[in-house]
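2024-03-11 09:14:02 DEBUG pipeline.ingest accepted 1 chain
2024-03-11 09:14:02 DEBUG pipeline.ingest length=308
2024-03-11 09:14:03 DEBUG pipeline.predict start
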Amino acid sequence: MIVRKTVRLKWILKIDGWNILFFLAYGYLVCVMHAYGFFAHLTFPDTEISVFGIAVAIMLGFRNNEAYNRFWEARIVWGDLTNAARNFASQVVNYVRHPEGQDNGPQAAAAAIHRELVYRQLAFLNALRLQLRQEKTWEELKPLLPDAEFQALDRAANKATQLNHQQSLRLSELHSAGWIKDQAYVYGLMESVKTFFSAQGRCERIKTTPLPRQYGFFTKSFVWIFVLLLPFGLVQHLGWGAFPIYVMLATIFTITERIGNRTEAPFEGKLEDVPMSAICRNIEIDLRQQLGEDSVPAPLEPKDGVLM
């Protein structure tokens, strides 16, 4: 996610650099052809081109608004995951206790279970992030899980689902052993597990269901028809003065179209995406401090104005 108040020129060139070069060459060619009289007997309908430009701008506005809605929904889901993770850690610390009527034993036993459950939830969140970004390595999860459980993830098609399922199985074992009271198990911890499953499903829906392709295809097609016709309407009135105006207007339209195209997929690891890495790190800090740990990692800082 871009966190700078201003957008750097290199970002603009990365998004639309090749198009800008094309507009420079294309606009120059049209101006040269006009200067040599190629259009002396032709009159281009500049009014109609302007009306067409207004229609294209309306389409762009609609498409980009829907793209932003997808980004914002994705950010809301990760906000819900943050809240649910904090709540889950608090429930674990307060609800998972030594069985009544038995020797409480050392506090280390309860602390070890708390750590196991909270670390598994951190593994789930990071696995979801890695899945959404289609990462190839899962080594980040190794410090958060027992070796056997980490090795078993290789056989799982959906690793985040498997981790959340394993969490529910472990909670069931603890409930059966008397570590968790009935109400705390049914209405507390398992409701939290349900919330994690629900949030994962919402993320997967955004990831696997793109904005309907017809919106993207026709919007991009109409933008390019407009920017290819535009210099002919400008040059007959402005001459060489049409050249800088054309490049500027064409760049505005194509950058706006590209922004919508990039924003509609918020889980691809791009500059504009939801900062899932930073969110996961903030959740890890909060949950480990809820466990009473003193040594926690530092929050991720923006690099070159971008928070990932």
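2024-03-11 09:14:41 DEBUG pipeline.report The chain has a mean pLDDT of 88.
2024-03-11 09:14:41 DEBUG pipeline.predict end
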